[in-house]
Amino acid sequence: MRRFLVLLLIVTVAGFSAFAQNQPTKLTLWTFQELHLAFYSAAVKAWNTQNPGKQIDLDGQVFPYADMHNKLLVAVQSGVGAPDIADIEISKFPNFLQGNIGLVPLNDVIDPFRDKFVQARLAIYAKDGKNYGLPFHVGASVMYYNMDIMKAAGVNIDKIESWDDYVKAGQQVVAKTGKPMVTVETTDQWSYWPLIAEQKSDFFDPKGKVWLDNPTNVKTLQFLQDLVYKYKIAVTAPGGFHHSEQYYGAMNSGSFGSIWMPMWYMGRFTDYMPDLAGKIAIRPMPRWTKGGFRSAGMGGTGTAVLTQSQHIDLAKKFLFFAKGSKQGNIMIWQVLGFDPPRWDVWADPAMSAPNKFTEYFQNGDGAFKMLLAVKDEIYPVTLTAQTPDLTDMVRNNIMVQVIQDRSKTPEQALKEAADQLRK
Amino acid sequence: MRSLRTAESRVNALFFLIFLVLCLAFLFPIYSLLLASFRPGRDLMRFGITVKTLIPDNLSLKYLASLLTARAGAYTVWYRNSLILVVMQTGLSLFFSSLVGYGLAVYEFKGRRLLFSLVLLVLVVPIQILILPLYSLLIFFKSMNTFWGIVAPFVVSPFAVFFFRQYAIGIPTDFIDAGRIDGLREGGIFFRVIAPLMKPAFGAMAILTALQSWNNFLWPLIVLRTGDMFTLPIGLASLLSPYGNNYDMLISGSLMATLPILIVFFIFQRYFIAGLTTGGIKG
Amino acid sequence: MRRSIGSARFSPYLFVLPFIVTFLVFYLYPLVSTVIMSFQEIVPGQTHWIGTLNYERLLNPFMYTAIWNSFRYTVFTILILIPIPVLLAVMLNRPGNPANVVFRGAMFLPTLVSVVVAGTIIRLLFAGSPAAIVNTILHPLGIKPTDWLLGGSASAMTLLVGMAMWRWTGVNIVYFMSGLQSIPRDLYEAADIDGASAWYKLFRVTVPLLKPTIIFVTTISVFGGFAMFEESYILWAGQSGGGSPNNVGLTMVGYIYLKGFQGGALGLGSAIGMILLAIVLGVSFLVLNLFGFFKRDEA
Lengths: 423, 283, 299
Fold this sequence. Notes:
The structure holds three protein chains of three kinds.
Chain A: H1 2-22, E1 25-31, H2 34-50, E2 56-62, H3 65-78, E3 85-89, H4 107-110, H5 119-123, E4 126-127, E5 130-131, E6 141-146, H6 147-153, H7 163-177, E7 182-184, H8 193-198, H9 215-229, E8 234-236, H10 245-252, E9 258-262, H11 266-272, E10 280-284, E11 295-296, E12 301-305, H12 312-323, H13 326-336, H14 356-360, H15 367-374, E13 378-379, H16 387-405, H17 410-422
Parallel strand pairs in A: 1-2, 1-3, 7-8, 11-13
Antiparallel strand pairs in A: 3-12, 4-5, 6-9, 6-10
Chain B: H1 2-36, H2 41-47, H3 51-54, H4 62-65, H5 70-106, H6 112-124, H7 131-140, H8 147-151, H9 158-169, H10 174-181, H11 186-197, H12 199-215, H13 218-223, H14 232-237, H15 247-277
Chain C: H1 11-37, E1 40-43, E2 46-49, H2 53-57, H3 61-81, H4 83-92, H5 99-112, H6 115-125, H7 133-138, H8 153-180, H9 185-193, H10 198-209, H11 211-226, H12 230-235, H13 252-262, H14 266-290
């Protein structure tokens, strides 16, 4: 009798565990960008096909940018309510590296392939040698030209080498078409940051000290102001930044000649500005000096696994599959139009295969050839615990004060903000 | 005599005109929302409400209809959550606040004056000052992202306590005496004798509490963390995102969230007014 | 009206117990807690005592802007939302006009709209494009199309105060009308007999007797004005920085939210809360004094 019961017990337990293993594990994921969610859904499908024994049921939630980071921080601090996986934008990431870190180190899944990544992009999400976030992309900044306007003005974009050339071309565009050459963001940092990075400058120096008000930065901010008021080739972005509905609406109706944004902005064109399909060409940004850099690694989302997760191992493996594997990196390009962080993937033929991005942009299939050309001209940015506060100041105060209101000179605005941070 | 009447009727006419204009101005934004719900949300966010939006032609019902299906039915979830919360909050608040108001009105006991002053204090000093420590408390009680977390700190509404107290004071003590003669205990007197007499008070407070609960924003914003628990205001606010895509839901959803209150108001107008006034302006 | 109950000595305490409990747990404890937290620095898992460092850190332009914005908002809302509704209430109180109930109801409707919906409507009406309604109306008056949300401090305050006017005029009218009804008719009749003009009646009879109501509405307006946050949050929700450009819409509670919730600095946020409380109590005290609330008054 006893032996029978023991057998029954073993069979039942085995049966349950087998059953449990075949049930998909539910993983919750938080993000602030609806486009990312599409990517994760595709990644989960691929994972489930390849891992029948470890099915995942992904519950993805999208929150507004500031709100999501808020909620996540609260969850980490309070010890409850965090998802399994979360996208954390680069300028908010340092907030999560304070005190007892609520993110899981990913070194063990990264190490076998560590040297295949663009190192700078791993470093920004790491602390004390531990990697806490996986990047989406390199974020190479490029120039997008509206070719209809360029043709109407008689501008040859391949002749634009330096920023001086760009200004001259801009004046030609304004004179011949009456349209501004470009827009400058007043409530975000993508007009400013890449320009100083091109000159090997940054908000913080490589040692982490506040560098916001150094002479290069002052000169560059003045340049941006001059674009609007002195050379008169630029206007402030409608809605304040290049992700506002007002900007999409205006750009979509052909109001502006160009825009400089990172490569990940390609998805915004395809999804929000359909009328420009076939009219946009991508080129490297102008350079400041002969032989100077023509790009910068801008923005980024470090996706992390939270220590509160009940399925840390599975989450880590899935996350690496989605963003760290070769297949995942190719999908990053195909679904999102991002420049993936594994350089060993860039020469893969899949990267120039037709997809919605190659069809939209005039040189879409040559985008990666262009990227390979500038890949050594990308200066790494330095992040510190003060990055969130500093970028808030750039977005909320400095740009508005200098470019829009002109209530402060570049030197004043930068110095004031820097002094605030140095307190 | 006649000149007085004509002068008065002229003044009346002038006032009528003034108020007509004012009312149109006050109702105009709501009218715009109504029409905007029949237009594509994306255009509205890009260019705002334009004159074209307001001319009632080329309207489409599909934006309202999409509320049921957009984002896997998230809007219906928010609606349901708001309804649940209204019932919870109104029921609990009426129950507890009436008890406290009655107690303060009818009994003389040590500390009564102090307690009443504390009620006034809570009524007047805004909760916004306490959101941070309340939020720590929430974590401590493990009530993050729960309806109880939203409701618990506010089960006793000082406004309602004030109102019930005022109302109870106006009830003749004969009723209480009669109840005692009938052998009822104090609690019984309240539930069986006085409460039925306070029906108008309950009505007014129910309406006002329901309104406040339906529109509640700040505290639920802090408490609620996941989309499946969002109430309507929180859910709608979450659509105001630069990386979002659901503007139809935002605008049509705003209309559908407002219509119920407007309807309730038209039916129960006097309860609203009664609740706000009899409450005690006489300081 | 009230009787002291000998037999049921415990009942009163049972009746008021719910309030005592919630007051202690959800009001007094958080209040004390906030005072203590304001002297601490709190990161996940670690709390340090840092004395007055938080308060020193608050000597910064963000804080000054927040105080200034909250202050201006309160002053404007009181200046507009007391005299005008009083006047309108008096006008609506004239007997024999059935339309008055309709008017009162119509002006009250905006109060019923949630702050989220109100903010969304305002954003759409005041959108920056030249075709948006407000810009279209103002154009023939000589005002260029403005981006109201991004147009600087004055346009931001216009939006906020405009929104307040829209939402709260109706409620204030209701309050004042109820206060008016407690003014005895014979006072007006006596004034009429003496040949008083309408203005005399307004300023010498109505306003003084409305004083309790005016004091009440002013007090809640002071508290409401300084504590304003939701309107500001909604109007600038979705800006990439998570706030208004150059802090034109930043209020004190907004700063608490920014630092305490968004930035995770609970100690600093508590310090801001303390300062807010001090300011609000101080201003209310001044206002009440101004009204002679603390004097032995007659009427």
